[in-house]
Amino acid sequence: MNNMTSLAVIIPAYNAEATLEACLRGLAASTRRPDEIILFNDGATDGTVAIAERHGVRVITGEKRAQGPAVGRNIAAHNTDADLLIFVDADVEVHPASIGILETALKSGPDVAAAFGSYDDAPQSRRIAALYANLRHHHYHQHSKREASTFWSGFGAIWRKDFLEAGGFDHAYSRPSIEDIDLGVRLRKANKKILLAPEALAKHCKDWGLIQLWRTDIFSRAIPWSRLIAGQETDGADLNTSARERIVAVIAHSIWLFAIASLFAPAALVALAAAVAAFVLANWKFFRLLARSGGPALAIAGVFLHWLYYLYSSVIFVLVRLSHQKGRPYGV
Length: 332
Description:
Elements: E1 7-13, H1 17-28, E2 36-41, H2 48-54, E3 58-61, H3 69-77, E4 84-88, E5 92-94, H4 98-106, E6 112-119, H5 128-142, E7 147-148, E8 155-159, H6 160-165, H7 179-189, E9 193-204, H8 210-230, H9 243-264, H10 268-282, H11 284-325
Parallel strand pairs: 1-2, 1-4, 2-3, 6-9
Antiparallel strand pairs: 4-8, 5-9, 6-8, 7-9
Helix pairs in contact: 1-2, 5-11, 8-11, 9-10, 9-11, 10-11
């Protein structure tokens, strides 16, 4: 590896004192040490800035409060001369070898513009909602194509030159959303490669609550992502929007349809059982991961949460597509 490449880590943060210590501790233990760490203070009112300064991190404070991570990352990127930018969320603790793995991925070809890693299989929070959400993310990133059509800024790397040429993150995303996916779409349109490096692991320290998870899934992910796909901005051909996932969504909907039918025709119970079995088998690797990480209780709860995930995600996708076809692209 050519260590002459300069590397800056960028951390957007708002009231992140609960997780920032772990984030900075992970960076300090990295075998590929960053040449610079920049924290964008998005109007924090807790001890975020004090923690960063105690660790010798360069702090940039936004002119306005709570502008969002897209704005923060862009400002930080324009305030460094590093060749390579590593985006790390303030609630993410990278494994020691992970930054080096991403750097190696970026240097694997002249047309590679970006690379991203994966959450590990040992999230910090042990709450069921948090375990389910973090392990779901881990599972998808561990089983997706190496050449991706999207980007992930929770732990992702990009050449600064390519980042600036693409225009950075879209400021229209004023809250954490799909600003990274949108950037990935633009990189792909410019014929740049994005690589998924599942070996570049990082621990997620976010303590998801159930309502918070559903709100994020629906309003920050499913709706805006569906709009991108409906507008033919991306083919949605990887991660959790593949053709296989859509088939599993059909199976998920068949479960409630057969459940209703069984109220009137007991023979439909056979079809219901078959649909449930098909859903479990289709997600067997994920459910096995849940059982291994949290035991039978998490596995059972995970089956139900994952079923709901397929239901609301697919319904939103269909509604957005219909609304787009009727000339109302923002109707959902």
